[in-house]
Amino acid sequence: MAANLERKPAAGRIWHGLVAAVVLVFLLLPLLVTFLFSISTVWQDTVLPEGYTLDSYVRLFTDQRFLDALGRSFLVAVLTVALSLIVMVPTIFIVSLYVPSLEKWLQTVVLMPFALPGVVSAVGLIKLYSNPPFAISGTIWILIGAYFIIILPYVYQSTRNSLRAVNAAELMEAAEVLGAGKAAAFLCVILPNILPGVIVASLLSFSIVFGEFVLANMLVGGSYEVVQVYLYHMMGVDGHLSSATIVTFFAFVLILYVLVLKIGNRKPRTALPSEGGKEETA
Hints:
Elements lengths: L1 H37 L16 H7 L2 H35 L4 H8 L7 H11 L11 H11 L1 H15 L1 H10 L4 H12 L1 H17 L2 H6 L7 H8 L4 H26 L6 E3 L5 E3 L1
Antiparallel strand pairs: 1-2
Helix pairs in contact: 1-13, 2-13, 3-6, 3-7, 3-10, 3-12, 7-10, 8-9, 10-13, 12-13
């Protein structure tokens, strides 16, 4: 009986391992083939390439058009995430702590992007912002505005969970009892405590903005070419170069997701009072 009970968890682990292996192969095989093609010299009638070279990557990183597009993508992502954090983090804090009756409305607003397909949003934004006085269609500003809306759910959820985890109400009350104003208490007490959640929201939002294509192609296209649009254009020109772009693009996004997982799995540092009245960090 005991032996049967031990065999069941072992069989379950084997089954889970097989399923995980199949999923990983299914997801990573196209990327592996793309990588092999990007470093191949000739690959036509054989299972593996007949020769290997890094010429595609050398040409990619010496292509000024690619470097400019990559820089524009970073600029758009950084400005969007910074603007979102500056606006949303204080707003979420104020609503959750001082005006909780508005929280359900805020949740409804930030979840709206999930109900709007990218194509529909792009068509509406182009019609709305193509004429004066807000003729910003085709510029970086319409892209930042659209991405600001898209990343709202991720910034909201991560920040809201962090505020609940640290018990922001008690922290604010303690800081105010010690003489701090509301702004100082938020900046010096609340913000450092929710910083891991804010960093996770930033990295997740950055990777989403960095990988988004539909809005970038429809709203700005070639007038402000970001790396996603550059990749789309290269696909019809040079297969090796576009494969190298895909692999490089995936590497950037993978690094961001690894950072998100690493920071998200960090255990919060909790201050515990000791017997002598001093605080210890656990």
